[in-house]
């Protein structure tokens, strides 16, 4: 099967700081690196490295051909990544000494994906494939409806959180993943918790506290996180999502898919960077963490 990802593609500019800046504070960075990133890209790379077949639907500007080439190098099908006249999206990421991060996002080409590109891509999809989306692109509601009509399973990572965008796709979802802050925001917007939305599977990630799986009709089940010393938490949630979907696509039961994804995310936070440093399946299978 195939995981179709309507996803963002960014250049991630990462600055190492002693701590995250407060209002009006100026800090000198101790280091700078540029990586391939974007929530969509991270999920595509993670799923591909977890042995899934992944096709990315997105866009870059004339300055972003390197990003498309690198996605291809990492095993992602990029035939449906368009080149548009808008600058490639980018993120300015501040990473503190304790591993916490702060991100400024410029959407750029991610908000200019042609609708024809979406239709062209999903015309090759088959019933039982997955469509995954995040809130860093355009066309999410159109994609969700099209995918549902075609018999795909639809997954959504509700980040960055926007109540209107999330509510527009809720009727089409089979799987929703969001962090604890986003879950609280969704509860406030809907007046009901994620467990009451009628979605078959919901996962709420909680960072170092692990993740909780809400299965429609079943009791909630909590999965503890692997214990590691983090150096950079950027992309950990995206790695988790990509690995969960890849596991499900490969036929793993949800508990095993989550356990594997938790280990991948734990490895990810011990590395500095985003898509370029996502662990592959062999890394995860060989890992022995506490």
Task: Please describe what this structure looks like.
Helix 1 crosses helix 7 and helix 7 (236-249) runs antiparallel to helix 8. The protein has helices spanning 39-49, 65-73, 115-122, 140-149, 163-169, 180-190, 236-249, 254-268, 281-286, and strands spanning 2-6, 10-16, 31-37, 53-60, 77-83, 89-95, 101-106, 130-134, 153-157, 175-179, 201-205, 211-215, 221-223. It is an alpha/beta fold and 290 residues long. The protein has a single domain (2-20, 32-278), classed as UDP-N-acetylmuramoyl-L-alanine:D-glutamate ligase (3-Layer(aba) Sandwich). Strand 10 (175-179), helix 6 (180-190) and strand 11 (201-205) form a beta-alpha-beta unit. The strands form 2 sheets. It has a 9-stranded mixed beta sheet with strand order 5-4-1-8-9-10-11-12-13, with helices on both faces.
> End-to-end distance, in Å?
33 Å
Share in helix? 25-40%
Strand ordering within the main sheet: 5-4-1-8-9-10-11-12-13
Number of helices: 9
Tell me the radius of gyration: 18 Å
The rough form would be described as: globular
**Averaging pLDDT over every residue, what do you get?**
94
Number of domains: 1
Low-confidence segments, given as residue ranges, are: none
What top-tier CATH class fits best? Alpha Beta
| Named CATH topology | UDP-N-acetylmuramoyl-L-alanine:D-glutamate ligase
Let me know the number of strands: 13
Q: By helix and strand content, what is the structural category?
A: alpha/beta
The major beta sheet can be summarized as: 9 strands, mixed
**Helix and strand sequence:** EEEHEHEEEHEHEHEHEEEHHH
Q: CATH architecture, please? A: 3-Layer(aba) Sandwich
CATH superfamily: Ribokinase
Assess the beta-strand content as a share of residues. 25-35%
């Amino acid at each position: 099967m195939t995981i179709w990802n309507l996803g963002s593609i960014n250049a991630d500019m990462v600055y190492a700081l002693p701590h995250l800046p407060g209002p009006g504070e100026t800090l000198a960075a101790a280091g700078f690196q540029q990586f391939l990133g974007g929530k969509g890209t991270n999920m595509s790379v993670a799923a591909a490295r977890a042995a899934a077949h992944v096709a990315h639907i997105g866009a870059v500007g004339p300055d972003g051909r390197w990003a498309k080439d690198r996605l291809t190098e990492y095993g992602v099908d990029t035939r449906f990544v368009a080149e548009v006249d808008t600058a490639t999206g980018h993120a300015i990421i501040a990473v503190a000494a304790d591993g916490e991060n702060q991100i400024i996002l410029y959407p750029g080409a991610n908000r200019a994906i042609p609708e024809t590109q979406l239709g062209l891509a999903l015309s090759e999809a088959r019933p039982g494939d997955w469509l995954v989306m995040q809130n860093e692109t355009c066309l999410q509601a159109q994609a969700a409806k099209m995918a549902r009509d075609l018999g795909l399973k639809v997954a959504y990572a509700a980040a960055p959180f926007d109540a209107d965008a999330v509510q527009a796709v809720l009727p089409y979802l089979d799987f929703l993943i969001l962090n604890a802050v986003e879950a609280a925001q969704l509860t406030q917007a809907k007046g009901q918790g994620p467990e009451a939305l009628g979605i078959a599977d919901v996962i709420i990630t909680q960072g170092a506290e692990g993740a909780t799986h809400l299965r429609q009709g079943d009791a909630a089940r909590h999965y503890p996180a692997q214990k590691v010393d983090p150096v950079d938490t950027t992309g950990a949630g995206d790695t988790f999502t990509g690995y969960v979907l890849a596991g499900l696509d490969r036929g793993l039961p949800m508990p095993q898919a989550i356990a594997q994804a938790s280990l991948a995310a734990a490895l990810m936070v011990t590395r500095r960077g985003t898509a370029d440093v996502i662990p592959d399946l062999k890394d995860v299978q060989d890992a022995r963490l506490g």
